[in-house]
Design goal:
Elements lengths: L9 H7 L8 E9 L2 E6 L2 E7 L1 H6 L12 E5 L7 E6 L5 E5 L7 E6 L3 E7 L6 H14 L2 E7 L7 H9 L6 E4 L9 H6 L5 E6 L5 H9 L24 E4 L5 E4 L12 H7 L1 H7 L16 H7 L5 H49 L1
Parallel strand pairs: 3-5, 8-9, 8-11, 9-10, 11-13
Antiparallel strand pairs: 1-2, 1-4, 2-3, 4-5, 6-7, 12-13
Length: 357
């Protein structure tokens, strides 16, 4: 299996050179199952797990290999799994905050070139969700492309496309009927040799149908559409990196109800560029666009030049990002405390062993 076919390039080569004189070889994570991994390598598909040292030195789940990651591993055999010793520097990553009170980064996909944001032109259609997805997509470092699937279910698909184009400046938008194969051929042209894409969207929007079409096989099982809500019963339960006949790679993901932001400063600049441009004319540089005098954003809102829903979505995401930043500070303190606890345990263990000698 050629590494270039898996997306290997000079960027990853540069970070692998420090391991080049060892017995380690590069591989790319295809599937993650708790503590076990399926990995693509020149030797083919291999099963792997992280080393004990790797596990000890990690500070959180974000340090563990994710689907799409390149790793340096020691190849195993039929009796023992391959051992992952290092995760190479990530070129891009699509992250979210894990659910619950803890502040941990969950990496949904790593080293991606294109984020396909899939939305159905049925009951799934939601402008505010697209704004959220775009914010996270721009933050990832990859290029977003919006797919409006189930165009056959919508009488005004072109107007919906135009509506989204007004909030997604410069982002390519593809109208698609994946079930009939209409529009999917464009993805084959985009996913050229070694290019990695990821499909993201709610459950039932047609991600598995798109994946099946790209593969030319029924890889992802799809249950019948439920007539009451027109949603697919999508059974993808894990993320998986798949090699495509067209030469590219695709990561299929389970349906996402809502993405909890992990960060978003860069993403919000791209997703709400119109509001950011208006902000430059506010009297105060730190204007919150709420009750401050001479606010250019509020003026545009009052004059009908800015949609109320978009304005409220921007404020909501700004508030969420500020909250996340505060949680990050607390989380960083927690991680540092845990790191020193690990170091202390290791020192105490060495001292006990020395006393026994």
């Amino acid at each position: 299996m050629k590494l270039e076919l898996l997306g290997w390039n000079s960027f990853f080569e540069a970070y692998f050179t420090q391991h080049a004189n060892s017995e380690l070889v590069p591989g790319r994570i295809s599937i993650q199952h708790k503590e076990r991994y399926l990995i693509y390598a020149e030797a083919g598909e291999v099963n792997g797990q992280v080393s004990g040292k790797f596990r000890f030195e990690t500070n959180g789940i974000q340090d563990f290999p994710a689907v799409g990651d390149w790793v340096a591993l020691e190849l195993g055999d039929k009796q023992k799994p391959s051992i992952i010793h290092h995760v190479l520097e990530r070129k891009s990553k699509f992250s979210r905050n894990v659910a619950g009170k803890k502040t941990d980064e969950q990496i949904l996909a790593a080293n991606i070139d294109i984020v396909f944001l899939v939305m159905g032109l049925d009951s799934d259609y939601n402008l505010r969700r697209i704004e959220r997805y775009l914010t996270v997509a721009w933050e990832s470092g990859a290029r977003p492309i919006i797919i409006l699937n189930k165009a056959d279910k919508c009488d005004d698909a072109e107007s919906k496309k135009h509506e989204i184009s007004e909030i997604a400046t410069g982002v390519e938008i593809i109208l698609m009927n994946a079930k009939a194969g209409i529009g999917v051929e464009l993805l084959k042209e985009i996913l050229k040799f070694g290019t990695t894409g990821v499909l993201l969207g709610s459950s039932g929007v047609g991600k598995s149908t798109i994946t099946n079409y790209l593969l030319g096989a029924d890889h992802a099982k799809i249950r019948d559409i439920h007539e009451a809500d027109d949603r697919g019963r999508h059974v993808t339960s894990h993320r998986e990196l798949l090699l495509l006949p067209c030469g590219g790679l695709i990561i299929d993901t389970p349906g996402l109800r809502e993405i909890q932001l992990w960060s978003g400063d860069e993403g919000i600049l791209e997703s709400f560029d119109d509001i950011i441009e208006l902000s430059a004319n506010c009297r105060f540089r730190d204007c919150k666009h709420n009750a401050e005098p001479d606010c250019a954003v509020k003026k545009a809102l009052e004059e009908g030049n800015l949609d109320l829903g978009r304005y409220e979505s921007y404020l909501k995401l700004q508030k969420e990002i500020s909250y996340i930043e505060r949680k990050h500070d607390i989380g960083a303190q927690r991680l540092e405390k845990e790191r020193w606890k690990k170091i202390s345990k290791q020192i105490n263990k060495k001292l006990r062993n020395r006393d026994k000698q």
